[in-house]
Amino acid sequence: MENPCKPPIEEKLYSCPRLSDASGKIDSAHAEVRQVECGKGFGLFGGKKSAEATPPPLIPEEMAPPPYSDLGKKAQDVFNKGYHFGLVKLDIKTKSASGVEFATGGSSNQESGKVAGSLETKYKVKDYGLTFTEKWTTDNTLSTEMAVQDQLVPGLKLSSALNFAPQTGQKTGNVKAAYVNKQVAINADSDFRADGPIVSASAVVGYQGWLAGYLAGYDVNNKKLTKSNFALGFTSGDFTLHSNVNDGQDFGGSIYQKLNPQLETGISLNWSSGSSNTKFGIGAKYDLDQEASLRVKVNNQSQIGLGYQQRLRQGVTLTLSTLIDGKNFNQGGHKIGLALELDA
């Protein structure tokens, strides 16, 4: 009799342990099980094949909201990273065998001729979540910071820093606390200065891609509010929308979008009610390959910024940038920048 199954039978072999044989004795050998499929939509007896259980789609885990200072950061990076107008910079990072991180850098301002530099060391005790940082700058300022993270409460970071200027004897310090989970990011810090402490606090709440944050600053000595900033935004994958109001007078907004793996774009808009000044800018970054990238930005003041970044070899990156004044193109006054980064 002709087989009613259409299309032809597909036979699959599976190997599984045989529990027992006819005598009831356990056999460690593997039995062979045959499963016959009579084509799509048919079972062994011509009925419809039972639908296989389809796993539910994976829902991406909601990321923790950023601190207030990082709201709109992706768009800011499009306009700020990779540009060093009027500067010649050198940054070197290295790490010793014992785990101590060293970072030293220097820059020369082509207009003023001022040279600035810094040396920083950082050591982490991972078992206790401790980080010790010491820094010295050419302004003869010494700073020491100690931070502890995820020890008392998961997501909580506490830090304290002390700054000392030997020439003037001036001492300043600060204490910071930060807590973050999947719904909220809270930051609080206090700067201790000779004229009195300045306390600031911020909170950012996130829900299904929407972000809302508030930042406040208070002068304890003068008993007045120094900052009152509000921000609202939305982020979804490669798209970020950000808006903010500072002290009820300065309004700003930005849009970031990654159009494809090589091209990132950003739009920035700022308006001040006090001076009625409007600033508008468009920027983009394009990755030529894994080693090189191009940057360009332009604003409503006819200033054009161009940047080119090239990784010469592993740990060596060269950045060239220039700022062209479109309104005074023939008069000159354009700026160039050069930066070299070494990471060993």
Automatic annotation (TrEMBL):
GO terms for cellular component: mitochondrial outer membrane; pore complex. The keyword Cell cycle does not apply. Gene3D superfamilies: Porin. It holds the Pfam family Porin_3. The keyword Amino-acid biosynthesis does not apply. It is found in: Mitochondrion outer membrane. Coiled coil: none annotated. Belongs to the eukaryotic mitochondrial porin family. This is Voltage-dependent anion-selective channel protein 3. It comes from Dendroctonus ponderosae (Mountain pine beetle). The lineage of its organism: Eukaryota, Metazoa, Ecdysozoa, Arthropoda, Hexapoda.
